[in-house]
Amino acid sequence: MDVQTPLGRVNTWVEAFAQALETRDLEKLRQLFATDCHWRDLVAFTWNIKTMEGRDAIAAMAAETLPSINPRNWQIEGEPTEANGITEAWLTFETDAVRGLGHVRLNDEGAWTLLTTAQELKGHEERKGPTRDKGVEHGAFRNRETYAERRAREAAELGYSKQPYVVIIGGGQGGIALGARLRRLNVPTIILEKNDRPGDSWRKRYKSLCLHDPVWYDHLPYLPFPDDWPVFAPKDKIGDWLESYTRIMELNYWTRSTAKSATYDEKTGEWTVIVDRDGEEVVLKPKQLVLATGMSGIPNMPKLPGMDSFKGDLHHSSQHPGPDAYDGKKAVIVGSNNSAHDIAAALWEAGADVTMVQRSSTHISRSDTLMELALGALYSEEALANGITTDKADLIFASIPYKVLPAIQKPLCDEMKKRDADFYDRLEKAGFKLDFGADDTGLFMKYLRRGSGYYIDVGASELVADGKIKLAHGQVTEVTPDGLKLDSGQELKADLIVFATGYGSMNGWAARIISQEVADKVGKCWGLGSDTPKDPGPWEGELRNMWKPTRQEALWFHGGNLHQSRHYSQFLALQLKAREAGIPTPVYGLAEVHHKG
Ligand SMILES: Cc1cc2nc3c(=O)[nH]c(=O)nc-3n(C[C@H](O)[C@H](O)[C@H](O)COP(=O)(O)OP(=O)(O)OC[C@H]3O[C@@H](n4cnc5c(N)ncnc54)[C@H](O)[C@@H]3O)c2cc1C
Question: Ligand 1 in contact with 105 (CB < 6 A)?
Fold first, then answer.
């Protein structure tokens, strides 16, 4: 094979790699990786979501996993490409348990990044295309059970005479996407949702809300939005889509059903979940419990002196009803991130006099710039035209290890600064305190590290720059009957105070529903351990607790934006299905817990 061509180079590397794995030659394996190297594995080798950084970590993982995993049959898929001294290729492979898809980037030393992903479990493949269900049994049968009768029977039995294997608490897009994946894998699952209707978690948000991410990034698994779906879908449209999706996907979705408590019996390996189902108490006994209760679920509501004395309306942004009642009123929004900006702009449009209290600096990315610079190559019409499907885009995204991401994000952020220099200048002149992240890596790193601290500008920033949305700075020290006081001594009069002060870590849900002990045992969710504000070290290499085994057996966390819900639901579903099917799932490198919440 000609090592002068990309195909030749990849082929030579793949052959040597496959042989090193097969012969368990760890020294040879080490040499096939560059000095700076990263192997990210989604379930295929580690039954975990884990990135091994450096040759030592890679060799250690291989030493422990190879005997039980038995990887083999490595093939190059498609044509390798080359740019800037990096050769990239897609790979297929299999292990004893899974068929996998991989991606490698080679530099002149060897593999710089390697992604390995489990795509399906052998013997438990999703039935689709040629293997799809017939849907009907042709012939003549007395007392034939119709499709509708069968569905009704299944829905009536599950949770009563038959127990689900998985209970998902939370039926937002996260619970729904995971439920759809589990349905396709034939895992009996119930999704519990306290709201009246699927989609209500979106419907109930402030009325001006449209998705901040563009349509190409937002599809649910299996069923993409129609191709006339708006770029930024309004929240009610998303709500309706989610509701329809639960029906089309035939999910066992219990509305008006609140999970009141859950306890795990280590001996039986079973959860007891007490559910209030529209007034009726139902006890569910699943083997696996998933909290899909939302990253934006537990409001951070400050407790301030004088709150009870306030004469106007005061609420957290998650409770904000919209601007209609506030024409001509004075509104003070505490906070300066996404919700604060959206709510402030809607109030201004409705005729309110709006002041935003900025407590600390905020990153702003203009939506158009973000789409073009950050997402366009993978999630856009142009990407589709270049053959990058949503699934492919998700895998390309996943192939970039978190450690490497800041170095990729920084030039994008620098370009954004340059391109929108005039916009940023005007904002700063208006007194807005801007930042671009602790290391100038912008929005996406802030999202991964802390899930907060930014606004994707869809118009509110112009109002701030123009002084139409006024600014105040500092911490709120006290709420008075007519407004609030800041630590600078400034007093703001208000008829409405909105605390757009964000949300707490998802393990807060475990504390509420399971116990504080379990919440502490699993620790903080989200964040990478980057040692930047609100993301304390040590470095984790992956998002804490998300979509992977936790320190509490049989407890899982699922969530994130629409892209993450879609992509990672696949890997969480495979982990759950493997357990249901009795496939051994030795977890490599279960993460340590460093922070309680
Ligand atoms: C203002 C705002 C704008 C956003 N914009 C975007 C965007 O543009 N794109 C994007 O991808 N993301 C966006 N997000 C993030 C957004 O929160 C998530 O994408 C999405 O809501 C997460 O879905 P989820 O299913 O994980 O959580 P949620 O939608 O929060 O759903 C969790 C569900 O759990 C239910 N629940 C909680 N406790 C219980 C219980 N004990 N029993 C039963 N049910 C329970 C809740 O009722 C809720 O329906 C935005 C968030 C906010 C707040």
Answer: no
